[in-house]
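On clarity, I found the account of how folds are encoded harder to follow than it need be. Since the whole study asks how a given chain folds, the encoding of that fold should be made plain. For illustration, here is how one protein appears when written out as sequence plus structure tokens:

:::
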Amino acid sequence: MATVRELRVALTVADFDEALAFYRDALGLEQAADWSSDEGRVVLLEAGRATLELLDEAQAEVVDEIEAGRRVSGTVRLALDVADSEATAQQLVAAGAEQVAPPVTTPWGDRNARVQAPDGMQLTLFTGE
């Protein structure tokens, strides 16, 4: 059986410079590689440990209700463990994100903030207690 060694999310964006400034510069993901060429641009950003969280529609609705007060996320939502979810959310809003909902304390004890990146990707920023 094959063993997966890395989970990589490949995000296609309309405005590459804006996305790079948001994810690398504002969010602080470290640039690990730049494979850009005359054919197009691509960089690899490190985001720490990767996991794949699978939710059924019912649970996705529960999470959205807790974090945003209504069903708002699409099929893919990035969830990032950060040192201070509220401060990170404020930093990202200053860099062009939209605050989806104010930060909340979840029933499982995390402090979560939901923002939408300029490219439309929803981000849950969470800080465990």
In short: The mean pLDDT is 95. The longest helix spans residues 57-68. The radius of gyration is 15 Å.
